[in-house]
Amino acid sequence: MKLGIVGLPNVGKSTLFNAITQAGAESANYPFCTIEPNIGVVAVPDNRLQFLKDLYQSEKVIPAAIEFYDIAGLVRGASKGEGLGNKFLSHIREVASILQVVRCFEDSNITHVDGDVNPLRDIETINLELIFSDLEMVERRVQKTEKLVKGDKSLLPELSLLKRLQAALEEGLSARSLEYTEEEQELLKTFGLLSMKPIIYVANVAEDEVADEGVNNPHVQRLREFAKTEDAEVVVICAKIEAEIAELDEEEKEIFLEELGLQQSGLDRLVQASYSLLGLISYLTAGPKEVRAWTIKRGTKAPQAAGKIHTDFERGFIRAEVVAYNDLVNCGTHAAAKEKGLVRLEGKEYIVQDGDVILFRFNV
Ligand code: GDP
């Protein structure tokens, strides 16, 4: 699962990305992740794993992870091919969701490309590039569909959706700001619109503003109001502090956070927000060798969840032996949970829940 970090120059992207790679999970544990200089892998914080490690006396813990993709190079005019324009846009196409870093800190030593700090203008600059790129695609598709629809009336709903999108994009609205029927949502998946991608706005604030999440920062207030209109989330961080935190070990990190009056690092909050924005949950496997969290989309059935571990597990799926994490904690041991009938045997139609501790049975 890849998230793309975008933003104008000098807003703090590299600082944040460096913090991500510094804090980075050991990539050896994540063979599925792409290892490239502009990709950072971050573990998803999950307190449940330590409990399971103690319970099963496991050798190691492998948390779930998400990948952050540093997509630098967006400037005004990217959709017209300025700067790294087209390359940039094709990178955005690959990510599941967008993290847009927005500068909310004032610092006269660090110039802003457009003169002053103004998050809404910055957001508009970036979003317009995505909108222009989408508009071009939609216009082409409208023309094509208008021809085809003459011989195939079943394309009428698609044409009407395309026209509605065209009108919105022409007005400078992101595709994500419209409402869609279920049928339209299916169609949209085939369009691959950039301005449809879920987005988190990362408000980069000054060091002394992060503890109260920038409540007194007018830039953050305006950003929050705007994000509401898009149903987008805002995560307030201080990239500079994140870079410092990333250099600390676990214990030092806790002390430092406490001094700052923070419960969690900004990066941890960002990872969790990203996870939930994408509708992701974790199920867990536990044994003496390792405890591991596996990422699935909410609503995934048992065989497909098993397929995350190995395709053989999906193909040869027989059943899943499931106990909810909380039941396991309440009972103390797996055996006690079993005695109380809380270890269930689930079949192919079972929808895996967040925190399910699972043992899959399968044929090879
Ligand atoms: P990028 O161009 O978006 O990648 O921005 P950088 O990460 O290179 O940051 C641009 C400048 O802003 C650098 O000098 C950073 O040290 C500084 N910077 C980044 N985050 C913060 C912050 O939270 N507070 C302050 N005061 N400066 C920051």
TrEMBL record:
Instruction: Say if the entry is tagged with keyword ATP-binding.
Output: yes
List the GO molecular function terms: ATP binding; ATP hydrolysis activity; GTP binding; metal ion binding; ribosomal large subunit binding
Ranges where the TGS domain occurs = 279-362
A GO CC annotation given for this chain: cytoplasm
Protein name, UniProt field: Ribosome-binding ATPase YchF
Q: Which cofactor does it need?
A: Mg(2+)
Ranges of residues in domain OBG-type G = 1-257
- Give the binding site residues for ATP: 10-15
The UniProt similarity line reads:
Belongs to the TRAFAC class OBG-HflX-like GTPase superfamily. OBG GTPase family. YchF/OLA1 subfamily.
Cross-referenced Gene3D superfamilies: 3.10.20.30, P-loop containing nucleotide triphosphate hydrolases, TGS-like domain
Tell me, what's a Pfam family for it? MMR_HSR1
